[in-house]
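Input set for joint prediction.
Command: fold jointly, output tokens.
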Amino acid sequence: MMGLVLDGGIALLTIGIAAWTIRAGDDFAAVVGFVAYGLVLTLAWTRLGAYDVALTEAAIGGGATGVILMRAGARVKPAPAARASRRARIIVGALSAAVAAGLSAIVLLPPQPAPSLALEVREHLASTGLGNPIGGVLMAYRAADTFLETVVVLLALFGVWSLGRDAHWGGRPGPALRPAEGGALPLFARVLVPAGIVIGIYIVWVGADAPGGKFQGATLLAAMAILAGMAGLVQAPATAGRRLRWLLAAGPIVFVGIGLAGIPLAGAFLAYPPGFEKPLILVIEVALTVSLAAMLALIVAGPTERAP
Amino acid sequence: MSAGLLATSPGGDVLVAAIVVPVIGILLLWLVRPRAVEWVALAALLANLGVAVAVLRTVSSSAAPVAYLIGGWQPPLGLALRADGIAAVFMAMAATVLVPVAIYARGAFGAPGERRPMVFWTMLLAITAALNLIFCGQDLFNLYVALELLTFAAVPLVSLDGSRETLKAALRYLVFALAGSVLYLLGVAIIYGAYGTLDLIGLASIRGPDGALLLAIGVMTAGLAAKTALFPLHLWLPPAHAGAPPAASAVLSALVVKGSFFIALRLWFDLLPPERAVAGSTLLGVFGAAAVIIGSAMALRQARLKLLVAYSTVAQLGYLFLVFPLGLGSGAAPFESTAWTAGALQLMAHAFAKAAMFMAAGLVYEAIGHDRIAEFRGLGRIAPLTVLTMTLASISLMGLPPSGGFSAKWLMLTAAFGEGAWWWVLVIAAGGLLAAGYVFRILVPAFTPPEEPIARVKPVVVRREAAALALAVIAILIGFLPLAPWPLLAIGRIAAGAP
Amino acid sequence: MSLAPLDAATLYGLMGAILVGLGLYGVVLLGGFLRRLLAFNLLGGGVFILFGVVARRGAGAGFGGDPVPQALVITGIVVAFCATALAITLIERLTEEDGDDPSGGGS
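tokens >
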């Protein structure tokens, strides 16, 4: 009963924050509302017992998205208060309410028993060598999704880079850093960054058997890189650098290489030879983590703003 | 046909190649020396053409779909790729369009290794991979990833020039596309919640006419319509397609909008129980009809060639949506119907003609330094091959014989007459007349001798003119195929085997 | 078909349905690209939660939830972040190009 009250409270709070974000008077307030939304959503995910998702939501959905939204909220001038006509609001409101009502009906009248692939996932999990079923789905059963998703992230980075100016192509993202003299940030960063890197690697490592994994770990590593950059400890790399490009490509190359090797060795693309499943998956995860961390950090850093 | 009894077909490896070849191409682009970039892209697109032809040959010679189980896992747990007749035909079509586009685009963006060429070739290969996956993907979430790949590749092409107008057009496109994706994903959530599988074959065997499926297909169709720029969600398309560089516009108009349309086709013809499809398909047909009329009317009013061609895309996409009422309303097996073949022909003829048209528009702009239609007098003198390209492409867009556009519209009319649906006949006829109106606005001045010699800004490169011409010729050649339903397009359709 | 029990999954399912409705309203009606983008993310959060509810209800085989929809959500969150980042960069670049009318509004 207590749990149900807590869940009801979280649900109402989430809806309240969402409504407030929609209605907020200015853009920055709306961004703040959205970051709060990400936090309560993380709570909801833990209450649903989905700890892997909660970690992802906290790291990416709330964290990384929040960072870029805050940056935009500060940079972008407020929108002209163009209010839609009353008629448009009524029509769209009715349509949105109808969709919400339809979804509610589906939620309230679920099929019995609830369809699930949990049994199939369990049945084959041993053959992947992994203990975390979500890792099994991401790296074995639906490995093609994960592979293509990595390509999507890489394309998003290239898309971000494509928005820089011609003169800056191949240069470094972000404004030139002022040498950070004194202040708390460099000190804070010096302490936090090593700790964050250790935790990030740990999250990837345990992801094979417990909640965690490459996306969450990579986000944490990316966050550490950004923090170190903000504190002036490191400088964003030039996007034309060959080492950087190999770093970005390493994850997808290892993934597709092992995937293709599966055709002669295990009978199918993205199949792993029996007995080598776990080590191969770990190799892919490590390579992906490094590349994904670089991609995510550079996506947050934005397009190049300095000539090479 | 029961769930999960799929096996990798002999020669199924080509489906993996269809996805992996362009992806490896992308990775290589960023690792090789700048001078090699264009050659890597061309090699990847040629290899892709080879793969697509191999898929088509396998499907047509065996008269059966080609399937591949990724990782050896059976759906619903694993992901399958499966090329049926229409998927194989469309894969080959897309691969065929992409090669002349690449030949046309070579050297068009300045020194290789700079921003614009790197972005263009990367995104072109990404579009290739995404379309191949959309055509042969069998899992609704896998298709979502493909749709996102397509969006992320298409949007930077729109803003390649970096001007304020194109940035705004790209942003507006992105907002529509993202809203479309999230609606599609909502449908995926509903379907998994109701059936516990996202595999199209598995779903077709267990679907029922229940509310969850109807709501899911409803929101997914709305999302896909936004991505396909179906009237009234078309407002993003003209500025985006007119603002992109010509080689990019060609791909965006000819191929990218067809990706989301193809998924809508799959949902309606493979998943929706036919008895539930009638009312909804009529609604889609009405929106399509409105697109035909309003898109053509807007094209008639444009002063600039690229905007005219972009509005023509809105109209020509409208025809595609007539397939829903005509194909689903015929009662008989929809894949053997005249309307099904008509839709496939319209999609392909438009792809070739529109790519040719945008490429020709780019050549016109380069030749005379503008694309104001009112000042086209004498164009035929200084760019005869390009004007020939525009003429051939226009014949197909208007639907004059012999051309792919004519065959498509003729079969559509046959289907409409067959069902006694005279109102669709009126729309198709009116659309043809309006199209004639807007293409003659271009062609008449182009063929009129100039009062004073028209100034040539830059000589046109024959290689690039020939690439555009080749596409226009294919649009005409499609018109020589027999005017009857193609058995090839009915191979391996899921619902054909379902009760 | 019978009514779902009043449990955490049902509560969060209703929450997800309402979030989708709110987000949809915002995506269509709000002025300014940044606000629409926020609404898109609210809507996405609602869709992901619906996946989470499906996962929770599919608990079995010793798992607290069906792992498949949870894995889909993880992929989805990463993709949504990329979409947001691309859109934000476009918005910022547009602001740079034109100080007067940064968010553009429009449909």
